[in-house]
Write a structure and sequence with these properties.
The protein has 277 residues and is mostly helical. It is built from 12 helices and no strands.
């Protein structure tokens, strides 16, 4: 089974590396989202990013000279993902629940992304591709980009994990001990939006949201502290994605869906392990 995977490396190696880097990066961000209890904000931001990409495609359709994987769709996808992560925080300040605001963002992204491209010959196909998985389309530029984003995420978590977790879990106490809570919360939302926007445009919403939510969920069942969840979630995301890519290549399954399915099973396994303790 593994031999065919390595034989396909010359053709799909960049896609595999991009997927593995995204998995680690998103798992680290997912721990923060889990601590903030804003997991649904991730899928809302994903839909907002899809809307941004749809708008970009309506401006510069596929096949035009201006259409590029790293051009306007990339910029608007990231920009709308940032908006999608910041808006729930604004909603809380005006007295609305974050769940309601996230639902509003999600529905806006899901509906308008289709409406914007309803009369485009290939636009709806592109939206559907983003909603499921586009992992195989990654190239060497994506490897370099996500290597930088992943290393930067690891560095930020290593240096600021205490402040980040304190702001996420107890913002009032964080403010009392002198941590600029609002600045940290805004910076965290912007950073999550940037990473989600980059990931969704490259590997699709399904794989992005799976790595954002499921490895941290499994790590939560295994770890006693939030701090320990960072390396455990990253390792679960990395290991499960690699195994899923090998299985998908050997049996001709889509890699993003295979990774999501395997991570779903791991959540159940980790839950059963916790119950046996």
């Amino acid at each position: 089974m593994g031999s065919s995977f390595w034989e396909s490396w010359d053709l799909f190696g960049d896609a595999y590396l991009t997927g593995l880097l995204c998995a680690v990066m998103l798992a680290l961000v997912g721990v923060v989202q889990t601590a903030k209890r804003e997991v649904f904000a991730g899928i809302a931001a994903a839909q907002a990013s899809t809307l941004g990409i749809a708008i970009a495609l309506s401006i510069a359709p596929i096949g035009s000279d201006h259409h590029s994987q790293h051009g306007l769709p990339w910029v608007l996808g990231i920009g709308f993902a940032i908006i999608g992560t910041v808006v729930p925080g604004i909603g809380r300040r005006i007295g609305e629940s974050s769940e309601a605001v996230c639902a509003w963002v999600f529905l806006c992204g899901a509906s308008f992304s289709v409406l914007v491209l309803a009369h485009s010959p290939h636009g709806l196909e592109e939206v559907q591709r983003l909603m499921f998985s586009s992992l195989i389309g990654a190239d060497r530029h994506d490897v370099y980009a996500f290597a930088g984003l992943t290393l930067l995420s690891i560095l930020l978590v290593s240096l600021r994990h205490r402040q980040i977790l304190l702001v996420a879990t107890d913002p009032e106490f964080a403010l009392a001990v002198g941590i600029p809570q609002r600045r940290y919360a805004l910076a965290s939302s912007i950073w999550v939006g940037i990473l989600l926007g980059c990931a969704i445009h490259t590997v699709g919403s399904l794989f992005t949201f799976s790595c954002l939510v499921l490895p941290p969920m499994s790590a939560k069942f295994l770890c006693r502290t939030m701090r320990a969840m960072f390396p455990v979630a990253a390792l679960i995301a990395l290991g499960s994605s690699f195994v899923a890519f090998v299985i998908a290549d050997s049996y001709d399954y889509p890699p993003g869906q295979m990774a999501a399915g395997l991570q779903i099973v791991l959540v159940v396994v980790c839950l059963l392990l916790r119950r046996r303790r």
